[in-house]
Amino acid sequence: MSRGRFITLEGGEGVGKSTLAKALALRLAQAGVRAEVTREPGGSPMAEAIREAVLSGAIREHGPFAEALMFSAARIDHIDRLIAPALARGDWVICDRFADSTRVYQGVAGELEPDLLRSLERVATAGLAPDLTLILDLDPRKGLARAARRSPDQGKDRFEAETLGFHRKLRQGFLAIAAAEPERCAVLDASRNPAALAEAAWLTLAERLTVPEAA
Ligand code: T5A
Q: Which domain holds residue 95?
Protein backbone atom coordinates (compact mmCIF):
# COMPACT_ATOMS: atom_id res chain seq x y z
CA MET A 1 0.00 0.00 0.00
CA SER A 2 1.37 3.43 -0.87
CA ARG A 3 1.83 6.13 1.73
CA GLY A 4 -0.94 8.74 2.01
CA ARG A 5 -0.41 12.40 1.23
CA PHE A 6 0.23 15.02 3.89
CA ILE A 7 -1.40 18.42 3.33
CA THR A 8 -1.00 21.35 5.69
CA LEU A 9 -3.02 24.57 5.85
CA GLU A 10 -1.27 27.66 7.13
CA GLY A 11 -1.88 31.38 7.60
CA GLY A 12 -2.74 33.98 10.22
CA GLU A 13 -5.69 34.05 12.61
CA GLY A 14 -9.20 33.37 11.29
CA VAL A 15 -8.17 32.98 7.65
CA GLY A 16 -10.51 29.97 7.24
CA LYS A 17 -8.21 26.96 7.66
CA SER A 18 -10.57 24.78 9.71
CA THR A 19 -13.46 25.52 7.36
CA LEU A 20 -11.32 24.66 4.33
CA ALA A 21 -9.93 21.49 5.94
CA LYS A 22 -13.45 20.07 6.28
CA ALA A 23 -14.39 21.04 2.72
CA LEU A 24 -11.27 19.38 1.29
CA ALA A 25 -11.84 16.21 3.30
CA LEU A 26 -15.36 16.04 1.86
CA ARG A 27 -14.09 16.48 -1.71
CA LEU A 28 -11.47 13.79 -1.12
CA ALA A 29 -14.10 11.43 0.32
CA GLN A 30 -16.20 11.98 -2.81
CA ALA A 31 -13.13 10.98 -4.84
CA GLY A 32 -12.78 7.82 -2.75
CA VAL A 33 -9.83 9.02 -0.65
CA ARG A 34 -9.95 8.62 3.14
CA ALA A 35 -8.66 11.81 4.72
CA GLU A 36 -8.02 12.48 8.38
CA VAL A 37 -8.55 16.12 9.45
CA THR A 38 -6.43 17.22 12.36
CA ARG A 39 -4.89 20.35 13.85
CA GLU A 40 -1.90 21.79 15.64
CA PRO A 41 -1.37 22.33 18.39
CA GLY A 42 -3.49 19.26 19.11
CA GLY A 43 -4.60 16.09 17.38
CA SER A 44 -3.65 13.71 20.22
CA PRO A 45 -4.56 13.78 23.93
CA MET A 46 -1.15 15.01 25.06
CA ALA A 47 -0.94 17.62 22.30
CA GLU A 48 -4.44 18.87 23.16
CA ALA A 49 -3.34 19.30 26.79
CA ILE A 50 -0.32 21.31 25.59
CA ARG A 51 -2.65 23.37 23.37
CA GLU A 52 -4.71 24.37 26.39
CA ALA A 53 -1.62 25.38 28.35
CA VAL A 54 -0.03 27.44 25.57
CA LEU A 55 -3.18 29.16 24.28
CA SER A 56 -4.20 30.11 27.83
CA GLY A 57 -1.09 32.28 27.91
CA ALA A 58 0.44 30.33 30.82
CA ILE A 59 3.76 29.79 29.00
CA ARG A 60 4.06 33.33 27.62
CA GLU A 61 6.11 34.67 30.53
CA HIS A 62 8.86 32.17 29.65
CA GLY A 63 9.23 33.63 26.14
CA PRO A 64 8.92 32.38 22.56
CA PHE A 65 11.57 29.65 22.93
CA ALA A 66 9.59 27.97 25.71
CA GLU A 67 6.49 28.20 23.53
CA ALA A 68 8.39 26.74 20.56
CA LEU A 69 9.46 23.83 22.77
CA MET A 70 5.86 23.21 23.81
CA PHE A 71 4.58 23.31 20.22
CA SER A 72 7.41 20.94 19.24
CA ALA A 73 6.64 18.47 22.03
CA ALA A 74 2.99 18.52 20.96
CA ARG A 75 4.09 17.93 17.34
CA ILE A 76 6.20 14.88 18.25
CA ASP A 77 3.23 13.25 19.98
CA HIS A 78 0.83 14.22 17.17
CA ILE A 79 3.09 12.74 14.51
CA ASP A 80 3.75 9.53 16.45
CA ARG A 81 0.16 8.88 17.43
CA LEU A 82 -1.89 10.21 14.53
CA ILE A 83 -0.11 11.56 11.45
CA ALA A 84 2.50 8.86 10.81
CA PRO A 85 0.12 5.91 11.40
CA ALA A 86 -2.54 7.47 9.13
CA LEU A 87 -0.06 8.07 6.31
CA ALA A 88 1.37 4.56 6.74
CA ARG A 89 -2.05 2.97 6.25
CA GLY A 90 -2.54 4.99 3.06
CA ASP A 91 -4.90 7.68 4.41
CA TRP A 92 -4.37 11.32 3.55
CA VAL A 93 -3.90 13.80 6.37
CA ILE A 94 -5.10 17.41 6.28
CA CYS A 95 -3.50 19.30 9.13
CA ASP A 96 -4.61 22.78 10.27
CA ARG A 97 -1.14 24.29 11.00
CA PHE A 98 2.20 22.47 11.27
CA ALA A 99 5.89 23.42 11.43
CA ASP A 100 5.49 26.59 9.31
CA SER A 101 3.44 28.06 12.16
CA THR A 102 6.39 27.64 14.53
CA ARG A 103 8.72 29.17 11.95
CA VAL A 104 6.45 32.18 11.59
CA TYR A 105 4.83 32.73 15.03
CA GLN A 106 7.89 31.93 17.16
CA GLY A 107 10.56 32.59 14.52
CA VAL A 108 9.52 35.63 12.49
CA ALA A 109 7.12 37.32 14.93
CA GLY A 110 8.79 35.95 18.09
CA GLU A 111 12.23 36.75 16.68
CA LEU A 112 13.89 33.42 17.53
CA GLU A 113 17.04 32.54 15.63
CA PRO A 114 16.29 30.67 12.38
CA ASP A 115 19.15 28.17 12.99
CA LEU A 116 17.81 27.29 16.39
CA LEU A 117 14.33 26.75 15.00
CA ARG A 118 15.62 24.70 12.09
CA SER A 119 17.34 22.31 14.50
CA LEU A 120 14.23 22.09 16.66
CA GLU A 121 12.06 21.43 13.60
CA ARG A 122 14.42 18.68 12.40
CA VAL A 123 14.19 16.90 15.72
CA ALA A 124 10.43 17.39 16.15
CA THR A 125 9.36 16.31 12.66
CA ALA A 126 12.06 13.63 12.17
CA GLY A 127 12.09 14.61 8.50
CA LEU A 128 8.32 14.51 7.93
CA ALA A 129 7.45 17.35 5.54
CA PRO A 130 4.12 18.18 3.94
CA ASP A 131 3.55 17.12 0.32
CA LEU A 132 1.56 20.32 -0.12
CA THR A 133 1.09 23.42 2.01
CA LEU A 134 -1.77 25.78 1.23
CA ILE A 135 -1.08 29.23 2.62
CA LEU A 136 -4.27 31.20 3.13
CA ASP A 137 -3.46 34.85 2.66
CA LEU A 138 -5.71 37.52 4.17
CA ASP A 139 -5.47 41.04 5.58
CA PRO A 140 -4.97 40.32 9.32
CA ARG A 141 -7.67 42.83 10.27
CA LYS A 142 -10.20 40.74 8.36
CA GLY A 143 -8.92 37.46 9.82
CA LEU A 144 -9.05 38.78 13.38
CA ALA A 145 -12.58 40.11 12.78
CA ARG A 146 -13.67 36.68 11.50
CA ALA A 147 -12.12 34.96 14.54
CA ALA A 148 -13.87 37.43 16.88
CA ARG A 149 -17.24 36.91 15.15
CA ARG A 150 -16.89 33.13 15.40
CA SER A 151 -16.56 33.08 19.18
CA PRO A 152 -17.90 36.42 20.51
CA ASP A 153 -18.33 35.06 24.06
CA GLN A 154 -14.76 33.83 24.44
CA GLY A 155 -11.95 36.26 25.05
CA LYS A 156 -8.99 36.46 22.70
CA ASP A 157 -6.45 33.67 23.06
CA ARG A 158 -2.69 34.10 23.59
CA PHE A 159 -1.92 34.98 19.96
CA GLU A 160 -5.17 36.68 18.90
CA ALA A 161 -4.43 39.22 21.65
CA GLU A 162 -1.14 40.30 20.01
CA THR A 163 -0.79 43.66 18.24
CA LEU A 164 -1.72 44.32 14.62
CA GLY A 165 2.01 44.73 13.93
CA PHE A 166 2.59 41.15 15.14
CA HIS A 167 -0.17 39.87 12.83
CA ARG A 168 1.23 41.80 9.87
CA LYS A 169 4.60 40.13 10.49
CA LEU A 170 2.85 36.75 10.43
CA ARG A 171 1.35 37.47 7.03
CA GLN A 172 4.74 38.48 5.62
CA GLY A 173 6.38 35.45 7.23
CA PHE A 174 3.99 32.99 5.58
CA LEU A 175 4.37 34.71 2.20
CA ALA A 176 8.17 34.51 2.56
CA ILE A 177 7.99 30.74 3.15
CA ALA A 178 5.80 30.35 0.06
CA ALA A 179 8.30 32.33 -2.01
CA ALA A 180 11.24 30.29 -0.68
CA GLU A 181 9.56 26.89 -1.18
CA PRO A 182 7.29 27.17 -4.22
CA GLU A 183 7.35 23.40 -4.95
CA ARG A 184 5.74 22.66 -1.60
CA CYS A 185 3.62 25.78 -1.07
CA ALA A 186 0.76 27.53 -2.86
CA VAL A 187 -0.73 30.85 -1.77
CA LEU A 188 -4.51 31.21 -1.94
CA ASP A 189 -6.45 34.45 -1.67
CA ALA A 190 -8.53 33.79 1.48
CA SER A 191 -10.75 36.85 1.08
CA ARG A 192 -13.07 34.78 -1.13
CA ASN A 193 -16.20 33.11 0.24
CA PRO A 194 -15.74 29.57 1.66
CA ALA A 195 -17.08 27.82 -1.45
CA ALA A 196 -14.86 29.80 -3.85
CA LEU A 197 -11.83 29.25 -1.63
CA ALA A 198 -12.54 25.51 -1.41
CA GLU A 199 -12.84 25.30 -5.20
CA ALA A 200 -9.49 27.11 -5.69
CA ALA A 201 -7.85 24.88 -3.08
CA TRP A 202 -9.25 21.75 -4.72
CA LEU A 203 -7.93 22.81 -8.15
CA THR A 204 -4.47 23.41 -6.63
CA LEU A 205 -4.58 20.04 -4.91
CA ALA A 206 -5.56 18.26 -8.12
CA GLU A 207 -2.81 20.06 -10.00
CA ARG A 208 -0.06 19.31 -7.45
CA LEU A 209 -1.02 15.86 -6.16
CA THR A 210 -2.51 12.84 -7.86
CA VAL A 211 -6.07 12.52 -6.63
CA PRO A 212 -8.17 9.74 -8.16
CA GLU A 213 -10.63 12.19 -9.76
CA ALA A 214 -7.79 14.10 -11.41
CA ALA A 215 -5.83 11.01 -12.44
N1 T5A B 1 0.63 28.48 16.93
C2 T5A B 1 0.36 27.24 16.44
C3 T5A B 1 1.96 28.89 17.11
O4 T5A B 1 2.21 30.00 17.58
N5 T5A B 1 2.99 28.04 16.79
C6 T5A B 1 2.75 26.78 16.31
O7 T5A B 1 3.70 26.03 16.04
C8 T5A B 1 1.38 26.37 16.12
C9 T5A B 1 1.09 25.00 15.58
C10 T5A B 1 -3.64 28.04 17.40
C11 T5A B 1 -2.72 29.17 17.77
O12 T5A B 1 -1.43 28.66 18.02
C13 T5A B 1 -0.47 29.37 17.29
C14 T5A B 1 -1.19 29.94 16.12
C15 T5A B 1 -2.59 30.18 16.65
O16 T5A B 1 -2.63 31.46 17.21
P17 T5A B 1 -6.19 28.19 16.88
O18 T5A B 1 -7.38 28.48 17.72
O19 T5A B 1 -6.10 26.85 16.27
O20 T5A B 1 -4.91 28.48 17.73
O21 T5A B 1 -6.08 29.37 15.87
P22 T5A B 1 -6.15 29.37 14.34
O23 T5A B 1 -5.34 28.27 13.78
O24 T5A B 1 -5.87 30.74 13.89
O25 T5A B 1 -7.64 28.94 14.04
P26 T5A B 1 -8.91 29.79 13.85
O27 T5A B 1 -10.00 28.80 14.14
O28 T5A B 1 -8.90 31.05 14.61
O29 T5A B 1 -8.88 30.18 12.34
P30 T5A B 1 -9.14 29.36 11.03
O31 T5A B 1 -9.22 27.90 11.30
O32 T5A B 1 -8.18 29.81 10.07
O33 T5A B 1 -10.58 29.88 10.58
P34 T5A B 1 -12.03 29.16 10.64
O35 T5A B 1 -12.20 28.24 9.53
O36 T5A B 1 -12.27 28.67 12.03
O37 T5A B 1 -12.93 30.43 10.34
C38 T5A B 1 -13.03 31.52 11.24
C39 T5A B 1 -14.42 32.18 11.05
O40 T5A B 1 -14.51 32.72 9.74
C41 T5A B 1 -15.53 32.09 8.98
C42 T5A B 1 -15.91 30.81 9.75
O43 T5A B 1 -17.24 30.46 9.57
C44 T5A B 1 -15.59 31.20 11.17
O45 T5A B 1 -16.68 31.88 11.74
N46 T5A B 1 -14.96 31.79 7.66
C47 T5A B 1 -15.08 32.59 6.60
N48 T5A B 1 -15.73 33.76 6.42
C49 T5A B 1 -15.63 34.33 5.19
N50 T5A B 1 -14.96 33.79 4.14
C51 T5A B 1 -14.30 32.61 4.28
N52 T5A B 1 -13.62 32.08 3.24
C53 T5A B 1 -14.35 31.97 5.55
N54 T5A B 1 -13.82 30.82 6.02
C55 T5A B 1 -14.18 30.74 7.32
A: 6-208
